[in-house]
Known about the structure:
Residues 276-454 form the Helicase ATP-binding domain. This is Probable DNA 3'-5' helicase RecG. Helix 5 (194-202) packs across helix 6 and helix 7 runs antiparallel to helix 9. The protein has 700 residues and is of the alpha/beta class. The longest helix has 31 residues, at 207-237.
Amino acid sequence: MKLSDSVSSLRGTNSKQRAILEVMGLTTVRDLIFHFPFRYEDFSVRIPLSRVEAGMDVTVVAKVERLASRRAFRRRLSLTEAFLSDGQGTIAAVWFNQPYLSKYVRVGETYRFAGKAVQTKYGLRLHNPVYGRESLGEAATIGPVSPFLPIYPSSAGLTQFVLRKLIRGCLSSVVDLRDHLPEGILDDYSLMSLPDALRSVHFPEIIDEQLSARRRLAFDELLRIQLAMGRTRRYRENRRAKTVPFGREAVLSFVESLPFKLTDDQRRAAWEAIRDMEKETPMNRLLDGDVGSGKTAVAALAAMNAAAAGHQTAIMAPTEILALQHYRTLSAMYAASGLKVALWTNSYHRTFADNEDRERRGKAESAALLSEIASSEIDVVVGTQALVEPSVRFASLVLVVVDEQHRFGVRIRQLLCDKGSIDGLEPHLLTMTATPIPRSLALAVYGDLDLSVLKEKPIGRQSIKTKVVSPRGRKAAYDSVRHELESGRQAFVVCPLIESSDMLGVTSVTEEYDRLIEEVFPDFKVGQLHGRLPAAEKEEIMQRFRSGEIKVLVATSVIEVGVDVPNATVMCIEGADRFGLAQLHQFRGRVGRGEHQSYCFLFPVNYGVAVRERLSAMEATDDGFVLAEKDLALRGPGDLLGVEQSGHLSDLRLASVADMDLVRDTRAAAQSILEIDPELDDHPALREFIGESVREAHLE
């Protein structure tokens, strides 16, 4: 039997079971032996039937005296009952809707049974116990040597008995299962061999044995990612980029012209980017900043350095709202230095030059703007995905900045970078995210990137007072919002949905908008903003909110990033329990940008203990990195990174990217292997193990 053999060739399954296996993704022998138990029933400690009491989780050894199947009275259930005896007492075992058990449980045989004892009007019963044959001379359900019964993820129609039988048969018969890890790695990190780990994770002799097995298998999962990223990084180091010298005079003059003082984190990150741009290897740096930490200023400094050398920068944002915000911010920053900035999206074509913001409407104006970009008259071009259109060409694109990079696919980022690839020289790449990423996750997912972290908040930025609001506390929260509005401030109200949904039971933008203007704030101007609105209408609404005409803006997560209204001091989040902590932190970051104290009110749909405990973290800290660590532990990497970036982590069955020690170990192991054998020519089994399953997510 080989790992690649189809499960259809295995004995002991019928066509229906094979169809279920295929639906579960278990189509080969390899799939089966890497289908791991999610728990074990402990058969190692047994008690006599005479000591069994109601409510106990017990393991007993008993002989089946009688077996019967029947229909439950007035219920559409089939019952299989086994009457058990061990010489000291008796009890009945009952299974619901499992009539097939009569084929496997035989009268006169002795088995081990594990389950909960329940007191019924018919006496003491074991409800749905798991079982295994006690005779060591036969092929037992749980195996003759393992007192622990593995329980697997399964599906209706495929029993645990069949799964255990198939996996045991595969483990004992497969001939090409070999260990891909070098012996040195096994010794250095005290790891089990792969065959031993697979046997122990399925059928451990002692319970701690499966912990060691899981550590080895988890090590493999993370090592696979680290090796793929390490090879990607080495490949990138062999590519070439146009060197950009440090434009000291221009950069220092730009810093002095800013109306604020840079934080130490901003200075450090900007210097790291500028130093990267001096190298012949393309920069591939991720700028990870907490909400309001000033990532745009760092990007502006890098772009100024490129412009000082006569080159262009492209800045791509995921939404027109964010692109427009960047355009306005950069135009203000560059007003004193004279850099020319352009905005290119599907809805907006604008330029800022000589302190004049000019709309470029019509085909002729748009064509003229494209010509200015192509001739290098424009220094910095800000846009959305529209920047990758063939009509947009650059004369000397040396720096590409991708904001909220997790919202773009690899292909889109590559298309934009290709516009700066000339004569084998590639542009430098700076990607940015406003989602604080825990260190372990950064190493596991972005190990092929250089990382700059912004934690410091700009000088004068106040902490935002946050409160989780109970249903009874809603009126008091609205009174606080009203006080802010009457003081001339403004408020955001974020909802999970655009339109109402009875199935989800959460507040929508449309119904909340109607309720606020009719019942809560009828004397204040309320607006609504969501992704289905035309771009021109969205911009009009945002402009009215920025100007102060609209006092309360009801919106979806479209305002998660890129909205900067210093006069807004209140953030209300409906259905707060439907969002992760990282996203709630992003919403909260839309306020607290001015001189006045700001507030955030969280309104959960479910006000249960677990929800209050999770949301209380928002009250306790405004440190996005602390909240990201909690989010990672509670919700996994997908909530922090999005589907595009966390996709290859979906293959992690046993490993956790929150396990910092294991991430460090696998990173070190990958580096030690690649240092002596970068192409893995001397490790063919390891090269085959990596395969194509881990996409080179950052090979831009």
